[in-house]
Structures are given as C-alpha cells and as structure tokens.
Design a protein that fits this description.
Layout (H helix, E strand, L loop, with lengths): L2 H7 L8 H12 L2 H4 L14 H23 L1 H4 L3 H30 L8 H23 L4 H17 L10 H30 L17 E3 L5 E4 L9 H6 L2
Antiparallel strand pairs: 1-2
Helix pairs in contact: 4-6, 6-7, 7-9
Length: about 250
C-alpha cells in the first residue's frame, strides 16, 4: 500500500474545541509545504515577480533603521555622522519600498492577480499600499522643517474639512510621532503579513496567457540558473490534481 493510500485510509480527526478547530483549519489551509515551499513554478523566474520581495526587503530596512532612529532621537541623527547615515538609509529604503511596491501593484494589475480566488490577496495588497502612504506622510511631517510644517497645516485644513481632524491632528507633533513609530508600522506589518500568508495559501498567480496544458502550471522544479529540472513530486498533476487546479 502506498503512502497516499495509507493516508486516505486513516480516519479524519474530529475537532470539538475552538483551539482544535483552529488547528484543523490551519492544517487544511496552510500546511507546511505551502507556508515554506521548497520549489516554485518555473514562471516565478520572470522579473515581474521580483518586486514583491523587493518591497518586503525594503520594509525590513525601514523598520530596522526606524527603530535605531527612534531609540537615539533627532539630536543624534541630525548631528552625528552615523546618525546621518542611518537617517539616509531610512529615507532611501522608503523610496525603494514605494518604487518596488508600485511596480509590483501595476504588474499584478495587468496580470489580473485576483484570479483563482485571490480577491482577498489583491485587497490586502491594496490596503498595504494605502496604509503605507499614510505612514510615509507622517514621516514627512516629522522632519519639522519649513516644508513639513507648511504641509502639516495645509493637510490639517483638508482633514478638518473631511471631519477627522478632531482625532488625527497633523499639527500635533507628539501625536504624529506616536502614529509614525507605533500604530502605522504595526498596521503596515500586519497587512503585509496577511498578504504574504494569503499568497502562500493560494499560490503565486500564473501568467494570464498561460494555457491549462502549460508545463509551468504543473509545478516544474526550477533550478538556480532558471532551467527546469522536472516536476516536483508534491506538485505533479497526477500526484495532486486538486493542487494543480488550485494554481489556476
């Protein structure tokens, strides 16, 4: 009897508590081979799939440099040479983050990345983009130079007109500092983490013009130099037809 036949013969485990049901849901929708896959379809070798990971790497640089800046304060990063360097790393990480995220967003838009039950993945990506804009805006205000103060008071008029100026006062430096170093980074991190988990659950979206018979959709194992070796045992269509169908 094969391993697959043995697994089918095992009775399904019953879950009768909320923790057990949660474990069952996680094991069903996010097994270890999806959460940390070893192989990827060959179409992932395209350059358009690079920018999503580039945005995540940039976000890591933003968070780490931001923590260093917040621990030492403006009297450090405005005066010391190393403070200037960390401040510059923080700034340019934000620039790279938005460039890669915009290219990633447009690339996925033209690929219709919401196909195959990936609507929530698309929406969380859009939410990450919008929350990141607010986080970047508060960071711009924290420069406390003439430009940032001018933008703050111009923005305050717009926020007052929209009715949210009472609790989001961009002229209040202490409040903006709290939003920028605590609330908004947590929001961006949470949305990005949910976005990545959904990508793992539903798989990377294939090219829009890929035919159902395309070998890329059957999970060819991709080598480091971009050549295809063969089919991953877990992704081979005859071994797991449900997973092969889910990659569409």
């Amino acid at each position: 009897m094969s391993i697959r036949e043995e697994q089918k013969s095992e009775p399904a485990e019953e879950y009768y508590t909320w923790t057990g049901k949660a474990r069952g849901w996680l094991l069903k929708h996010l097994p270890a081979d999806k959460l940390l896959p070893q192989d990827q379809p060959s179409y992932v070798a395209s350059w358009i799939y690079v920018f999503g990971m580039g945005a995540i790497v940039s976000l890591v640089f933003i968070v780490v440099s931001g923590v260093v800046l917040s621990l030492n304060g403006p009297a450090w990063y405005h005066v010391s040479d190393f403070g200037h360097f960390v401040n510059s790393v923080h700034l340019w990480s934000v620039e790279v983050f938005f460039i890669t995220m915009v290219v990633h967003l447009w690339g996925k838009y033209w690929m219709a990345a919401w196909r195959g039950g990936r609507t929530l993945t698309w929406l969380t990506g859009m939410a990450a983009f919008l929350v990141s804009i607010v986080a970047a805006f508060t960071g711009y205000l924290l420069q406390t130079n003439f430009d940032s103060q001018w933008i703050a008071f111009e923005g305050k008029d717009a926020l007052n007109a929209s009715g949210i100026g009472a609790w989001f006062n961009v002229a209040n430096l202490g409040q903006i500092f709290g939003f920028h170093i605590v609330l908004l980074p947590l929001a961006v991190g949470a949305v990005v983490a949910l976005h990545v988990i959904l990508v793992r659950m539903h798989g990377v979206v294939p090219p829009i013009d890929a035919a159902e018979s395309d070998a890329q959709l059957s999970g060819e194992v991709l080598l480091g130099d971009g050549t295809a070796l063969g089919h991953s045992p877990a992704a081979r269509p005859d071994a797991n037809p449900e997973q092969a169908e889910a990659t569409r």
